[in-house]
Amino acid sequence: MIIVFADHGPGKSKKKDKRSNINLKVNSNHQLNVERFKVAEDMRDAERRIYVLSESLSRQKEGTISHKTILAKLMAEQKQLASLKTFDNKVEREQ
């Protein structure tokens, strides 16, 4: 039984490494684009919920339990939207 090891030489392995780095970069850019798309959808949903909560809040009398509950939900949604925007900016800088 004879075992033969293929010797590609020093140049060939480097070329293969460069190709894999390029593929990783393209793949990473693709993943970043997908992530930004998902974040944009989440931001639109949060903005829609903020609008609905704002409309609901305007119909409630100040000081009532329902007013306080809706206000708390509205503030939580605004905080969530702010964090999504921050995350989107970070992803954008990565590209």
**Shape by Cα distribution:** elongated
Mean pLDDT: 82
The helix-strand sequence is HH
How many domains, in number, for the residues? 1
Poorly predicted regions: none
What Rg is obtained from the alpha carbons, in whole angstroms? 26 Å
Distance between the termini: 52 Å
Can you summarize the main beta sheet?
A: none
Fraction in beta strands: under 5%
Q: Total helix count?
A: 2
The class by helix and strand makeup works out as mainly alpha
Secondary structure tally: strands = 0
Q: What is the helical fraction, as a range of percent?
A: over 70%
How would you describe this structure to a colleague?
The structure is a single chain. With 95 residues, the protein is mostly helical. It has helices at residues 9-59, 65-94. Helix 1 (9-59) runs antiparallel to helix 2. The longest helix has 51 residues, at 9-59. The model has no long low-confidence stretch (mean pLDDT 82).
Which key phrases capture this entry?
elongated, single chain, 2 helices, mainly alpha, about 100 residues
